[in-house]
Amino acid sequence: MPVKRSEPSLPLLLAVSAIVVAALAILPRFIGIYQTELLIYSMAFAIAALGFNLLLGYTGLLSFGHSAYFGAGAYAVAFIAQRLHVQSMELLILGALLSTVVIAALFGYVCVRHTRIFFGILTLALSQVLWSLAYKFFWVTGGTDGMRVPRNAITLLGGLLDFRGAGAYQRFIYSYYYYVLALFVIAVAIMWVIVHSPFGKALQAIRDNEVRAGFVGIRVRRYRWIAFVISGLFAGLAGALWVPLNGLTTPDVLYWPFSGEIVFMTVLGGFRTFFGPIIGAVAFNYLKVYAVASSQYWQLMLGCVLVLLVLVLPSGILGTFTQPPPWVRRVASGKGAFVGASLAFLVALVALFWVWTDRFGTAGDLSNVIGTVAVIAAILAWFLLMALVYHRGGMIGHAWLGVLALLLPPIGAVVGFGGPALLVLPVLGFLIAIGLGAVLPSRVPTEQGA
């Protein structure tokens, strides 16, 4: 009996990846410099989340100390640039990677001897050691003032690109965007090869049952240590790419809340999927930026999002499509439940859009809070509606309708719709998808065949 494929074929994956990379390459031509800067941050965080997921998603180890390796990469770049006066970004990255490998190898040697909560507590404790050193040794690290990395003192591609003179900031942002994009693509490709290699399959065997993995000859502790070092290396690369854009690194990037943010990114996207952490990092970066801009209570908003995510979508954004939670499967399999739930989400989407535009006539900080909460809730309703439509018709049946619905808002904006009229086309697209889902037979697999 043929084995059912759980992942898309390699040619399809390469084709989709090429389209995404091409879209990212031309995107700066259509967006402002601030949005381009946010995308650079997102790609740096995505590299860190991708490395973290090698431990969490593929090895089954939850680390609470990955800020240590992100911060190590950032501080290494700052120290080499400021104290050794190195300008080449390639040499700065090389120094950051070497520093991160040493720290990750030492910390990993201690941590991989333990699992579960003991592993998590050890990683947290060791990361706090680095934070304390950066905080206390102010004559080396600058203490709370941090260490600056001037953009005009950095060159790219072996000195071919420098950023002095008029328009230096704009030239740096756009040049650095493509530089980070290239390294991001390389990092994703390398991680894909790692997780699909025999080494990656051994890590998954250790995650599923370390006793049986040891019985078949896998050296569990050694494999975990190597995975730990590779994971730290990716986080260090992310920190090295982050700090020139930020212009400053402080002990905050070594503190435990930043480790929590890396965990949040991975869980948000789906830690049992390869691309989930990338999606989660991008979503979290934009979510945090707009939450911080809207209210001083942005931590409360992010906390509520995390609680909703764990309760409603435990498998994350991408994981909801590849590994739907039981309630999504049950609702999508029944005609009446599918139609009722889909219409309820659609009504909620329209109501939340109205709340976002009206905000009950409030002003100031309260208005910003209401608007941000309405947007987050609307995105959640939109996403749940997409998931139901997707699973009701299967990948071939109605996925294209979901994609069409996602593309309709920008289409509406281009053709001149404004305000509430912007929602007309998506609503019509979803109504068509719901109607077809009610008429056509369900493609949701049964519990026996799932």
Cα radius of gyration in angstroms:
23 Å
What's the CATH architecture of the largest domain?
Answer: Orthogonal Bundle
Q: How do the strands line up in the largest sheet?
A: 1-2
Net shape? globular
Number of helices: 19
Q: How many separate domains make up the residues?
A: 2
Straight-line distance between termini: 16 Å
By secondary-structure content and strand pairing, the structural class works out as mainly alpha
Query: How do the helices and strands follow one another from N- to C-terminus?
Result: HHHHHHEHHHHEHHHHHHHHH
Enumerate the spans where pLDDT stays under 50 for 5 or more consecutive residues: 1-5, 410-418, 446-450
Per CATH, what is the topology of the largest domain? ABC transporter involved in vitamin B12 uptake, BtuC
Class of the largest domain in CATH? Mainly Alpha
> Main sheet, how many strands, which sense, barrel?
2 strands, antiparallel
| Percent helix range | over 70%
Secondary-structure map:
Layout: H1 10-26, H2 33-56, H3 67-83, H4 89-111, H5 116-136, H6 138-141, E1 147-148, H7 168-195, H8 198-208, H9 210-215, H10 220-246, E2 248-249, H11 256-269, H12 276-294, H13 298-312, H14 316-322, H15 326-333, H16 335-358, H17 364-397, H18 399-415, H19 424-439
Antiparallel strand pairs: 1-2
Summarize it.
The protein has 450 residues and is an all-alpha fold. It folds into two domains: 10-311, ABC transporter involved in vitamin B12 uptake, BtuC, CATH 1.10.3470; 324-439. It is built from 19 helices and two strands.
